[in-house]
Structure to design on (139 residues):
């Protein structure tokens, strides 16, 4: 009966099938499966580290996708998307959110000022009562 593998090990196995360079690297003795598994778990599948181990087909697909992703949104298109988003915003709703955020900040400032006021009065009372918990002497 075959032993069931952990799901992460199954995912790593499918990852290795897409990156045949890893098999060659381990067979040469330059690295171990444990090292590659730990790196895969830490860095993930999309890390540029794995590009050198990809199959030729996967590299070709990645190269085709790169220019499309980089050039798909120029600064003009980004600006139009931003302006479209601003047009869709409701000014009254934004004003309500800003007002509630302002009230929250004011409340937090009030609480902080109360703590600062009480801590400064406590500090002055402990300083006037004598030396603190520890006494320091000059040698």
């Amino acid at each position: 009966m075959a032993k069931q593998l952990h799901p992460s090990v199954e995912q790593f196995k499918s990852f290795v099938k897409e990156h045949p360079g890893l098999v060659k690297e381990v067979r040469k003795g330059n690295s171990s499966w444990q090292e590659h598994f730990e790196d895969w778990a830490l860095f993930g599948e999309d890390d540029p580290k794995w590009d050198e181990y990809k199959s030729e087909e996967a590299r070709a697909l990645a190269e085709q996708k790169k220019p499309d992703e980089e050039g798909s949104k120029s600064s003009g298109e980004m600006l139009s998307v931003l302006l479209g988003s601003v047009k869709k915003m409701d000014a009254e709703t934004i004003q309500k959110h800003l007002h509630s955020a302002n009230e929250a900040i004011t409340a937090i400032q009030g609480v902080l000022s109360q703590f600062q006021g009480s801590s400064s009065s406590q500090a002055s009372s402990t300083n006037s009562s004598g030396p603190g918990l520890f006494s320091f002497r000059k040698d």
About this structure: The chain is about 75% helix and 0% strand. The two ends are 78 Å apart (CA to CA).
